[in-house]
Write a structure and sequence with these properties.
Elements lengths: L1 H20 L1 H8 L4 E9 L2 E9 L6 E7 L7 H12 L3 E5 L9 H6 L4 H6 L3 H16 L4 E10 L1 H10 L8 E4 L7 H4 L6 E8 L1 H4 L2 H10 L4 E10 L2 H4 L7 H18 L3
């Protein structure tokens, strides 16, 4: 019995590692003609490892800070920066699990629990990291100074929360993330918030009506859209080789909407 339990645990770990590796996303990134690189953003006594991709454009471009899922800074999140660069935006994705001993990749290799580690991140540290990353990308010579934030899953909730803590971002894009619970927090938002939600994701999507009412009461702009039939994580799942029709449609429709909104920044 003990041997069977150990084997089962090993299989679960292997499945998680395979899911987080996302070889198909890495393959797409490896073929990109655009310039992507790792940079270390320092603030105070802390530094945050980030992946940044630059567009091939002749003018200065707006920037998107990409906040990763509960899985950490995966190949999919890095590839997303490249997809945004293909549309003409500088995109930077911080690894919020960065420590002196590494970050997401090192934690996965050591068999650590990425989700648990992310849930344990101090909120003030997350805010400080994101502020530093937003400032860093805004100061790049090729950036026009306009910065927006976009987050997915856990990162979706963090993008909503970041909008309550940073007055300089021009928009927050919340992909299947939960809102802050305090009306006082929402009252501090200084930019439009756009939501992208899945029809088959009641855990998150059920929070939208209350968030809508609270944002309206606070006098803030909040435009949520729900994609019928899609599941949580459809922006990643809709690109995967085994994607179902609903997730593919949600991914494509959300991309179209997102690009239109980015174009207005």
């Amino acid at each position: 019995m003990k041997r069977l339990l150990l084997l089962a645990a090993a299989l679960v770990s292997l499945t998680a590692l395979t899911g987080q590796a996302q070889d198909w996303a890495k393959a797409k990134l490896d073929k990109s003609p655009r310039h992507g690189e790792w940079v270390m953003v320092k603030h105070g006594d802390r530094q945050v490892n980030c992946y940044i991709t630059y567009p091939e454009v002749s003018n200065k471009a707006p920037a998107v800070v990409v906040i990763h899922e509960i899985f950490g800074l995966t190949d999919w999140a890095r590839n997303l920066t490249d997809e945004l660069a293909a549309e003409g935006y500088i995109a930077i994705a911080p690894d919020l699990l960065t420590t002196t001993n590494g970050g997401t990749e090192e934690l996965i290799k050591s068999g650590g629990n990425v989700g648990k580690a992310i849930q344990a991140l101090p909120p003030d540290q997350i805010t400080a990291d994101l502020n530093a990353v937003a400032d860093y990308v805004a100061e790049q010579p090729s950036c026009n100074g306009k910065v927006v934030v976009a987050g997915f899953c856990w990162g979706g909730g963090q993008s909503f929360r970041f909008a309550t803590n940073n007055k300089n971002i021009k928009a927050a894009f919340v992909f299947y993330g939960t809102p802050p619970k305090s009306g006082e927090d929402l009252a501090r938002i200084n930019c439009p918030v756009y939501g992208f939600y899945a029809g088959n994701d009641a855990r998150v999507t059920a929070t939208v009506p209350k968030a809508t009412d609270m944002m309206k009461a606070a006098g803030k702009m909040y435009e949520p859209v729900t994609y019928d039939g899609a599941g949580h994580g459809f922006m990643r799942a809709g690109e995967a080789p085994d994607a179902n029709a609903a997730n593919i449609k949600a991914h494509d429709d959300a991309w179209t909407r997102w690009k239109e909104l980015l174009g207005k920044i």
